[in-house]
Structure formats: C-alpha cells, structure tokens
Amino acid sequence: MSNVTLTINGRQVTVPAGTTVLEAAEKIGAFIPTFCYEKDLTAPGACRICVVEIEGWRNLPASCVTAVADGMVVHTESPAVVEARKTILELLVANHPLDCMTCEKSGNCKLQDYAYRYGVTGTAFAGEKHAYRPDDSNPYIYRDLNKCILCGKCVAACNAVQERSVINFAYRGFNTKIATFLDTDLKDSECVYCNRCVAVCPVGAIVDKTMMGKGRTWELEKKQVTCTFCAAGCAFDVNYKNGKVVGVTAANAAAGRPLCLKGRLGVNLLYNPDCPEKPLIKKDGEFTEVSWEEALGIAQLLEKINALTK
Amino acid sequence: MISLAEKRKEYQNRLVEKAKKTVIVVGMGTCGIAAGGDKVWQALENAVKNKNLDIELVYSGCIGLCYVEPIMEVHRPDMPRVIYGNVNGETALKILEEHALNGKVVSDLAVAQDPKEGKTVLPEIPILNEMPFYKKQVKTAIANCGIINPDSIEEYIAYGGYEALEKVLSSMSQTQVIEEVKKSGLRGRGGGGFPTGLKWEFAYKSPGDKKYVICNADEGDPGAFMDRSVLEGDPHAVLEGMAICGYAIGADEGYIYVRAEYPLAIKRLENAIAQAEKAGLLGENILGSGFNFKLRIKAGAGAFVCGEETALINSIEGKRGMPRVRPPFPAQSGLWNKPTNNNNVETYANIPGIIRKGADWFAGMGTEKSKGSKVFALTGKVNRTGLAEVPIGITIREIIFDIAGGIQNNKKFKAVQIGGPSGGCIPEEYLDTPVDYDSLTALGAMMGSGGLVVMDETTCMVDVARFFLNFTQKESCGKCTPCREGTKRMLEILNRICDGKGKPEDIDTLERLSNVIKSTALCGLGQSAPNPVLATLRYFRNEYEDHIHNKKCTAGVCTALLEYKIDPDKCKGCGACKKVCPVGAISGEKKEAHEIDAGKCIKCGSCIEKCKFDAIIKG
Amino acid sequence: MCCCEKKDPKQEALEALLAKYKGQKGALIPVLQQTQDIYGYLPKEALQQISRELKIPLSEIFGVCTFYAQFHLSPRGRNIIRVCLGTACHVRGGAKIFERVQQELGIKDGETTEDLRFTIESVACIGACGLAPVIMVNDDTHGRLTPDQIPDILAQYE
Asked: Which CDD domains does the record match to this protein (chain A) (predicted)?
C-alpha cells in the first residue's frame, strides 16, 4: 500500500493511504477527543466531538471518518475546532444530569474529562432535559438513559454478539434513545447481562450494579484473569479496593466471547476469599447446600440464555 | 431495434380524431381535487352518462393555475380551447350546457382562451400565453402537465414521449449520453445544484457490474409541490429520464422513492410503470435493444430526512433513515454498497427534452452557470398561487409581481422564503436578484427544490425562523450531536424570544450555535438547518431586537407581545366583540365605545374577526 | 376441516405477506406498511412474527417503527385527520384551523378519540400549498379553509 504524507499541527507525518486523520494524529500523539469511535467495533462519525480543521475545507470534518490525503494540512486544536468542541460539549452537558459527585463513572468518564479540558460548566443552555426513569429492574445493570450521549457503542457491542441485538437506536431527533424492543426495562427484554455494553459506555449511563457504591474508580485496582468456567476463556478484571475484591468487570468487550453473567459471577466468587466451596441458603430456618445457579438467583436467566442458543 | 415511429403516428391520429369531438378536461391533481375538482368531475360524469352526451370527459394533472382551482377546460372542434376557473358542480353543468353543447362561452367564469389557427372567441377573455401568469414562463419539465392524460402512455408517446429513449438506445453510446447531459449544463433540481452530467459520469466510471438509479421523490420541503405535480401530471417523463440514466451509467434497476403523503402520485406511477412494461419500454430487452431496466416504487414512511440521499438509501434498504458518512459517495458505494445515481423528479423530467431537442437548446436558456428552466411553487401571500416554470436568471421580482401578481389585499411585501428549511428569506432590496443557484446561495438562501413562500408585512420574521427550526428540530434524525441537541436549543431560544422572554445575549448565542451546527453537522440537512435563522438575522435583525429589547412584535404575530385595544372613535358599541369574547374581557354599554380588560384578555383574536368597523387594534 | 380451526383472516394475510417478502432485500419497511394496512397499527405479536420470518432483530424493528412517523404501535381512529402546518398554511392561518379541529374533537395532536372515530396528526406539508390552509381527512384534501368550516367537514366522516 502506498504512503501519504500530511501535516498535523505543523508536524509532518507519513501514514499508509486509507488511514483516518484520527489515527494519523494518534500516531504523533496529537490529542483528539472521541465518543462514538471504537476501533473495529463502531461505525463512527456521529458524535462530531473529534472534528478538526483541514485547510481548504469548508466545514470541520470528523477526523474518525476522514481519510488522509497527500499534502493535507490539519489543525487539531485551532480556535474554530475548540469553539466547536466546546459547543458540542455544552450541548451534551445541557441534556445531562450534573451529578458527577455521586456518579459511579466519575473519574473514568469521557464527558467529564473533556468538559474539564475545555472548561465546560453546564450553564450555557438552560432548557428541556430528558427525564427518563432509570432502569433499576435487575440486579446486574443499572441503566440511566438521562446520562446517555447516544454514542452507540453499547448498540455496536450488543450487535457484535450473535443472536443478541437486544438494544438499538429508537425514536428520532431529540427523543432518540437506546431502547429494547417496545422500550421495556432490561428485565423484560432478551438481555442476559453479559455487561459488554457496560464495558464500552464512555459515560455513566450503563453501570455494573453489583459494584455501585463500593468504591470510586480511582480507588480500585484491577487484575486481569482468565475465566475458567467454560472453554471460551474470556478475560475479566478483578477489581480490588484496599486488597478486597469488590467486583469483576469485563476486560475487553470488543474481542472474543460474550463475557457471560455466569462467568462473571463465578469469577467474582472464585476470587473472593470469604466464599464457601458450595453455597448455603437458609431454607426453613436451616442452612442448606444449593447449586450456584439457585444461590445467585440466575436459574431463570440461564434458561433465557439456553433458549437463545437453541 | 423496434421503432416507435409508427405507433406514435397512430396515437397522434387518434388524438386528431379525438379533437373532432368536444372534449372536457378537469384538472385532477391533488390540488385540483382538494379545491373540489372531484365534485366537478362527478357532476359532469353523471350528466354525460345520464343524457348520453357525445362528449369526451378526461382529466389531467395540474396546469399550475392553483389560484383558480378547480379548473375545467372545454375544447370544441370549432372553437378555441377555453379554460374555466373556480368552477363547482353547478357552474360546471352550466358550462357543459352552454359552451360544450351550444357553443356559447360562459364569459364570467372563463379564465383564458387558447387561440386556434389565430382565431379567438370573445375578445375580453385573456389569451392563455399572454396572461401575466404565463407570459414569462417556459415549459420544459412540466410541458405536458395539464396537457396530457397522465394515465395514458399513448398520449405521452403522441406528444413525443420515449423518442429520447429510442434515440439513446439506437444511436448513442453511454459516454455520448453523459456528454450531452454535461453539455446541457443541467444541475440537480432537488437542492444543491450539482451538475447532473458529472454525477452520471462518476457513477458510470465506478467499477461494478451492478448499479442502481434512484429517483428522489421524497419532496418534503414545506411549500414545495413541483415534484408532485410532475409525478401526477407527467409520470412517464420521469420514467423515461430514469431509463436513459440507467443506460448511461450501466444500471439495470431503479427505485423511485416517493413520500407516503403523495398517494395519487404513487398510483399514477404504478400505472405508468405497468403501461411502459407492457409497451416494452421498461423491463427486459427494451425496444429490442438488449438493454434491460426494471423500475420499482418505494413508498416513504414519513421522515423528512429521507430526502437526504444517503438517508434515502438507508430507508430503501429497510433501515432507519439516518444519513451515512460521506465519502464514500453514492456514486461509489450507494444502495446495497453498489454505485448508485440519485437525482430528483424534476431533474429526470428534464432529460427527455435535452436528448430530443439537444443540449444546446437547453443551454440556450438560463444564465452562464445555471442553465435551463426551473419550476417554482408560488405560495404564501400572493394573488396568484401556483406552479410556474421560468428560465433561470429571471428576477425574483418578476416571479412575485409579474407572474404571481404581487401581494394579496394591497399589503406590503416583506420577504420571500426560498429553498425551504435549508433556505433563507430574501428582503425587498434584493428582489432584482436573478434566480440562479449561485446568486441565491450568496444571499443566504438557496434554490433548494423551488418552494417560494411570499410573506407580507403581517408576517413576523422571528416567528418564521421559529417555524423552520421547529420543523428541522422535529425532523432531525438524531444521529449527530450538533443537529440533535443544537437545533433543540435554538428552537428554545426562538420560543423564548417570541414569548417576550428574550435575553440580550440570545442573538449572539443563536449565531454561535448556527455557526457550529453549520460547520460540524453530519449531513447537508443538519448543516443547512440554521440557514433560516442566519438569513433572518442578516436581513431582519431589527425584528429580533424589537422582540428582545422592546418586547414588541411589529407584525402583530407573537401573541405574548400583543395588546388588544379598542379605538373609541371607531367603535359603534354594537356588542359583537363582547358576545364573542370567550373570557368576558370586553365591557361597555350598547352604542357606546367598548373596552378590553388587558388583564383578562387571552389574545385569541376572536373580537378582531367579528368587528365590522376595524375598531380593534392589536400591537 | 372444522370451521373453528379456521385461521384469523388478518393472521392469514400477514402470513401471505411474509411469504411474499421472505428473502427479499430491503423488505422491512414495505412489510411494516402492509402489516399496518392489515391491522390498522402494528401489534406486538405481528412484529415478533416479522422478526422471526425476516430474521431481523426485534430491537432493530422497533427502531425502524419509531423512526418513521407513519408507523403506529397502538390502535388508531377510523378516520385520520392530517392538519397541515407547512409554511404556506402557517402564513395563512393553519394554526387556527388546527386549534379548531382539536377543540371540536376534544383531543390533541397525535391523539385518538375514545370512540376511535378520529385521530389527529399535524403534518409538515401535504403539497397543496396553493390552497392553504388545508387539512386531509383520510385521502380527501380540504382546502382554503376557515375554522367555521371544520364542524361540517368532520360531520362527513363516521
């Protein structure tokens, strides 16, 4: 493949033809924010936060979908670019609950980071905000679509698994929303809580419910392990706070297998030192040994998974 | 190859034969029907049947004279054609009796006459082509509309239809066709004005054995109905244009994407396709040339954004109609990722004429950079609403004042909105600007599809901007942030201004949002969504300032800023207003001047409508 | 065969429709349109059947249904009133017509009367601008309206 030489922020860079401006900028370490872009997963170009200025172009193109060309002169932080990014962030924040102090995602949130970088406070536009009821219907995923910025990564992650596609874009315009069939709670959908969507969400719209309130993101230490509950061997992160296991999260959602609920819960128990060999449940006043499925209350869920694979 | 010449001769003879009989034509486009054309038709049909009259009753599409709909025409073999307007069931029967049967023109209902061999009937009836509405018009894209029966392929062929397709298939190479279209200077009639020949060339040069032709008939701009009139009045012209395009770029399949709100257009297209297939003019081995071309209709499902070509392609594929990122352009990778050419209805309708009469004929009209003619839909506060095809380069003033007859009710012209939600408003000082793609864009408007809505002094320009933002906001697909969230905030600001709660910084905020949306939105619709605001800010900034700083709406539109008062000198104390007021805000003794309690008044305007003495003022 | 085993004619129509479109590219929207013609709206069960037959995930079908204004997930009135609020109608008093229609029927935009007689929808433009203001009831267009004509027009539809 032939190479292309372009200038980014005054620096020359040579990349293979077909490379995007975003990738070329990454190569020289020029910062460009992204929301909807996730390599090999999404069809990006929607959020527009990654716009850049290219000399001679009428508009500010999205760098994630613009291919490099020979002699192109790109500016990633020109005044026009900063103004545009700031406005886009103000628009997103204007329709977002400003509860970073209690948000699980705080400290690991792209919206928060970029707002900080570009000095966006959330006061620019006062108007209608979404008032969706958060979906608290199941023990595994807490979904607050008021925080959703419609980047579509969760949809792409869900679609990437065969036979899933539980969620998709629904409605349109300002009312666009990520929804299940008939816009039900996850509990009433075909969701099996693999949590791949949780792993890719750049903001706090979809969070792991089992870890809520157990620690701020910066207090947690992660250790990657391989799940041994089936032959797929998914990677999980075991999260420790002060040396104690507080939860298991999906390490890399983009590659490989579905990161199933059974595996995640199983890994959690495996790494939890307080965990007994076999679960005991108090039945009629006495502790009785039961299966993990029963103890975890996921028997129904396993049926759902089995029904889907049939 | 099979020649159509003999058939054409036969059909022409049939028309000549038909002209020996008395023919009555009723305008039955959607607008004609809406005005009561169907009732006129019913009355005439009953009379002809019951009395067993030797009269041929036919219908046509729209001839553009919307302001006098319903329209009927009488052609007697011994008299010039006479066009009647504003007819109803009753007057239609009178015309049938007096004119069609007895040769006596009903002069008070006659709108125009079309002289026959130089002869006219009553001198006081205007000559069709000399009428102010028609005088400056040229008919190319809509030449057949209102003239032929849209449901008859025979009439289309008799009028020279499918001659261009025959010519292309028998004597022109693909590149020759593309060169001819390029030479004509035809530019896309749907919005952006991209050179059509160049577009075809891209699709032709794109490698691939499967290619598609798409006709964008998703005419969604409020105030535009050119494409509907063409589809309803001359559907075969579009099919012929598409088939020629298919041949030129190497496609054997095409789709016509028609908006669901046009049921009559869909019906006429279905019929036209069936007729063309039967006549061997669509389908396999057209006219024995070896060229195959199959056409299908796709009905839209109610989304304005599908007028954007990549959104339209997604919609045909059965997806949400959200625009795609470009590049790749449809010419490289369009429908089902195959090279695709997409033009709008009027563009295709121009093709047969260009091929038949030659590129030079077409390029002889228009300006240096914008060739040919363009159909405009004239609506709003003008005396003559309708459809007018004019040579590009004519001034806006000529269209509004000469053709459309100026402003209704002796009001003052304020602005003309051109180009729909992507366009802008042009004020009086620019009325002498020639109508062409580049001049309009320079004024902050755009040619768009050709909707032309005229506004007078009683139109509030902030309210107009709000109207369009409300439209784009509702129709935004929601994919990209600037359009989805930005138009919402712009609308909220405009609502605030119209409600009398505007803040001094609002104009700056509107401008900042406009500029960011323009430069960062994903598709053309999003990028042009702020245009109505930018254009009104450019020419009518004082109205915004009046609303914000003085809490005044001089046009008297924004309810929250109005106060209703009674002029005691004019009020006769008749009590009509008092009676109609729904909240009891009006008081006063009989035969004495009344008063409005501003605290109770809900500004519904009922009193103004009832007052016979113009005694109630709002302002 | 016993008569009680006879299938619901609507169900049969849906099956015939799906058989016709099965395996065709881009079938979803025409299938939804024609399903709505059969039922008057898009029932959940019909959507589930479409999903199975056309092999399109339910969430995607829901996304398409909610994107286009034409599709409805709950039953609608026998008569659909479309009030045009396009530019031309707007400057010629379309809002007053809209107000009167809502007032006469006691329902708002997008709603259906309790007796399922009427559903009101505002639309952006129905392309009859020369006759503004206009409304459409089912496939009939009524133009050059004044608010006082509304009761008579509505009375024509049962």
From this structure: fer2
State what percent of residues in chain B have pLDDT above 70.
100
Q: CA-to-CA distance for B246 and B226, rounded, in angstroms?
A: 23
Pairing of strands B451-456, B413-418: antiparallel
How much is the mean pLDDT over chain A? 88
Give the whole-angstrom CA distance, residue B153 versus residue B239.
Answer: 11
Q: Looking at this protein, which amino acid is placed at residue A305? A: I
Residue that the structure tokens 């599409």 belong to: B61
Scan residues 28-47 of C and list those with Cβ closer than 8 Å to A.
44, 47
Rounded to the nearest angstrom, the minimum Cα separation between B527 and chain A is 9
Interface of C with B in 93-122 (CB under 8 A): none
Task: Report the residue of A174, A180, A182 to disrupt the C interface, i.e. the one with the largest count of C CBs within 10 Å.
Answer: A182
> Tokens 């190859």 correspond to what residue?
B1
Cβ atoms B386, B64 nearer than 8 A: yes
Say if the Cβ atoms of A174 and B484 lie within 8 Å. yes
Which of A165, A172, A181 is the closest to C67 by Cβ? A172
Which residues, 6+ apart, have CB-to-CB distance to A58 below 8 Å? B519
pLDDT, position C7 = 76
Residues C97 and C131 in one domain: yes
Q: Does C84 appear as a known binding residue?
A: yes
Residue B400 to residue B414: CA distance in whole angstroms: 12
C87/B223 CB distance under 8 A: yes
Q: Are residues A195 and A256 in the same domain?
A: yes
Arithmetic mean of pLDDT, B446-462: 91
Pair B181, B248: CB distance under 8 Å: yes
Range of the domain at C23: 9-67
Shortest distance, CA B297 to any CA of chain A (angstroms): 25
Task: Tell me A257's DSSP state.
Answer: S
**At residue A229, does pLDDT exceed 60?**
yes
Q: Are residues C152 and C127 in the same domain?
A: yes
Please give the residue range of the domain that contains residue A51: 3-77
Under 8 Å between Cβ of A235 and A224: yes
Q: Do C87 and C112 share a domain, yes or no?
A: yes
* pLDDT surpassing 90 at residue B173: yes
pLDDT recorded at residue B607: 85
CA–CA min distance B558, chain C (Å): 13
Identify the structural domains of chain B with CATH numbers, from first to last: 14-130 (3.40.30.10), 153-364 (3.40.50.11540), 373-456 (3.10.20.600), 461-550 (1.20.1440.230), 562-618 (3.30.70.20)
Integer angstrom CA distances of residue C105 from C98, C117, C148: 11, 10, 14
Tokens representing B235? 């559907």
Torsion of CA C104, C107, C112, C114, to 10 degrees: -80
Distance CA B266, CA B243 (A): 18
pLDDT in tens, B406-442: 999 999 999 999 988 889 999 999 999 999 999 999 9
Beta-strand relationship, A11-16 and A3-8: antiparallel
Average pLDDT over residues B27-45: 89
Residues of C in Cβ contact (< 8 Å) with A171? 66-67
Query: Which has more confidence, A128 or A294?
Result: A128
Read off the pLDDT band of A300 (50, 70, 90).
low
CA distances for A100 relative to A103, A113, B279, angstroms: 5, 11, 69
Low pLDDT (below 70) residues in chain C: 1-6
The CA distance from A75 to A51, in Å, is 10
- pLDDT tens for each residue of B380-413: 899 999 999 999 999 999 999 999 999 999 999 9
Report CA dihedral (A281, A282, A288, A292) to the nearest 10 degrees.
-10
Query: What pLDDT does A308 receive?
Result: 56
Chain B adjacent subunits, 3+ CB pairs under 8 A: A, C
